[in-house]
Amino acid sequence: MRGSYRSTSSDGRPDFDRSPRTDRRPAPDADRASPTTSVHDVEVVPTEARHGPGSYDVIHLANGYPLDADRRRLHSRRVEEQLERFPEGQFVAVTRADGAEIVVGTATTMRTRRPPDAPPLGWNAVIGHYGLPNHDPEGDWLYGVEIAVHPDFQRRGIATALYRARLALVPELGLEGWYAGGMLMGYHRYADVLTPRAYAERVIAGELIDPTVSMQLHRGLQACGIIEGYYPEPKAGDCAVLLVWRPPVAAPAKGIVQAGAGARLRRPGGAPARPQPVAGAPARSQPAAGAPARPQPAAGAPARPQPAAGAPSGASRAVANVAPRPGDTRN
Questions:
Q1: For residue range 105-153, what is the model confidence (pLDDT) as tens digits?
Q2: How many other C-beta atoms lie within 10 A of the C-beta of residue 9?
C-alpha cells in the first residue's frame, strides 16, 4: 500500500508523470473522468476487467497526476492480470450517476509467503509489477498493494469499506494476517528539519500527524518498522511505515474497520467458520460427580421465547450491529 498510489510498467518505471504536486487537485485534462454530483450509495464489489479504466483514473486523480490514454490502457491490462492471478483480492467502490456506474475507489491485494518480520523489500521488489507476477497462491500473508479514493468522494467512509473487504479475506482464506508499507506522504512538510526516519518515529509516537500513516494507525493497524527506500516518492522521502494486522486469536474476525456512511459491502456469500479453541487451552469444565443436574423447567411452564420471524441470526446480527461511521479520515 503506497500513499503515492503509483502503478508501474514491466520495466519497473512508474506508469505516469513522477513529478510531485503540492496540492491534491487534479490537473486540467480533457481526458479526465469526473463523477457528477447526482450520485447514490457507494458499494464495494469485486473488481472486474471493465473497472480497469476507472481504477486508473481514481489512482491518478487521488494524487493530482495527469491522465494518459496509453497508460490507462496499460493499467487496464495489468488489472486483467491481477484478476487472472488473484481475483478474490481485488475490490472497487462504485456508485451510479445519471444511470452509469462510476468507480470511486479501488484496492489491490496479493498473497505472499514472505512474512512482515523478514528483511524489508521495496514495493516493486515485493509485487514485481502492477499485474502481480509475484503473487503466491499458497502464501499465508496478504500484502496491501494499492488503495485510493476519488478526491470528490474522500471522507465518506469508502477507504474504510475497502479495508473491511480486504481484511475479511484473512479469516476467509485462513491466513496469518495482512501487512503493507504505508508511505509517509506528509514528510515533505518537515523535510528541512527532520530525516525521513525521524519523521516516521514521531508519527508512530503520535507526535506528528501524517495524512496517510496516521489514518492507518487510527484504524488499528500496528506500526512494526520503518522501511527506508521503499518507493521513489519525494513527498514521502521514499520512506514507509510497516503496517501489520493480525486477526484476534480464537475470536471471529470482524475486521478492524467499519463501513462509512453510504458505503456498503457486497461480497460472495459464506458464513465464517466457528472459532476453534486455542491449542493447550483448558477443556470446558464438566460437573463434578454427584453434582445436582441442571434444573429443568417445571411441567406446564411456558417455553423459552423464540425470535420473531425474520429476526437476524447470531451471525447476521454481528454484521447488522456494525454501525456506519461518518466523516472517515482522508485516504
A1: 999 999 999 999 999 999 999 999 999 999 999 999 999 999 999 999 9
A2: 15
Q: How many CB atoms lie within 10 A of CB 248?
A: 11
What CA–CA distance (Å, rounded) separates 154 from 83? 26
Cβ 35 vs Cβ 264: under 8 Å: no
Domains of the chain, each with CATH number or no CATH: 42-251 (3.40.630.30)
* In the predicted structure, residue 267 carries a pLDDT above the cut 90: no
Residues 6+ apart with CB under 8 A from 190: 199, 208
On whether the CB atoms of residues 61 and 150 are closer than 8 A, the answer is yes
> How far is the C-alpha of 263 from the C-alpha of 274, rounded, in Å?
27
In this prediction, residue 244 has a pLDDT band, given cuts at 50, 70 and 90, of very high
Q: 97 and 49 in contact (C-beta within 8 Å)?
A: no
**Amino acid letter for position 303:** A
- Cell (9 digits) for 257: 474497520
In sign, the C-alpha dihedral spanning 216, 221, 225, 229 is negative
Rg from Cα positions in the chain: 23
Q: Please, are residues 55 and 106 in contact by the beta-carbon 8 Å criterion? A: yes
> What are phi and psi for residue 242, nearest 5 degrees?
-75, 115
pLDDT digits 0-9 by tens, 256-266? 443 344 455 55
* Side chain identity, residue 25: R
Between strands 141-149 and 100-112, the pairing is antiparallel
Contacts made by residues 80-85, CB under 8 angstroms, sequence distance 24+: 80/49, 80/52, 81/131, 81/132, 81/133, 82/47, 82/108, 82/130, 82/131, 82/132, 83/47, 83/48, 83/49, 85/110, 85/131, 85/132, 85/133, 85/135, 85/137
Q: What percent of the chain has pLDDT over 70?
A: 63
Contact 255, 168 (CB under 8 A): yes
* Strand arrangement of the beta sheet that strand 90-97 belongs to: 222-227, 240-245, 177-183, 141-149, 100-112, 90-97, 42-46, 263-265
